[in-house]
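Continuing the series of single-chain predictions for the mutant panel. This is the parent chain; the variants come on the following pages.
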Amino acid sequence: MRNSIEIYDVNRMNKLRTLNIYSPLGRFSLSPDPEESLLAYSTDIVTGKLHVYNLTCLSQELELKAHHSPIILLCFNQRGSLLATASCNEVMVRVFAMPKGTRLYSAHRGIGARDISSISFSANSALLGISSAAGLVQVYQLRKPRGSCRENEESEEENLNDCSEKNQSEVSAKEPSAGLCGLRFFLNKLKSFFVSTSLEHINAIRPIVIHKSECRKRRNIMSLQNDKIVIFTKDWIYSEFGLDLGKRRVTGVDSKNLELLQFE
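Parent structure:
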């Protein structure tokens, strides 16, 4: 439905709530954790804003500006503690801690890698897998972050404010008021530019495994397990291969056309 999301209790098949929203792209993800299930959905077709709804309490949990362009994919891990998002015009996948929405990682995919088909967490949430319609499969290792982007942003702003106040105090005794105003304007611009550009490099992660599969020019769904990857395309191509994280490569690639197997 383009204008609403309906929430049901599958045990009794009762409708619990209807969220009257406008979601032309239909992007949403449901966490499978039965203790505190979360629903993330995007309603903005201009910017990358998303909403997180608590299905246990039936209440709005969070509103988050995740990207600068429309969101095309959302994916929770099994416990609902991590949410990965991808937008249509950016070459990175961001990972947020739920339910507070703190940004933990920015998974850089490389120049031109925008055509994302699927995102998947491993069962233990130690790995993040991303597949594209061009057949590119990338696996990232989610190590303990050095600190949230929000904390780093505050520390960067404090440092820049201290530096700005120090420079302004030094200049005020030597320069006229017009020069001081110009310096203050320049420092504020420099501060906003430095903070916005440096945040993308905080806890940035690079792929530890890159594989070019045979599923090229095909939309696909990927399932990432602790030791293997399974990819299923819309035209019945099934691929399975193992992961050797020590050597950072894939092993035992096996691909089948399930549509042909139906007639054997």
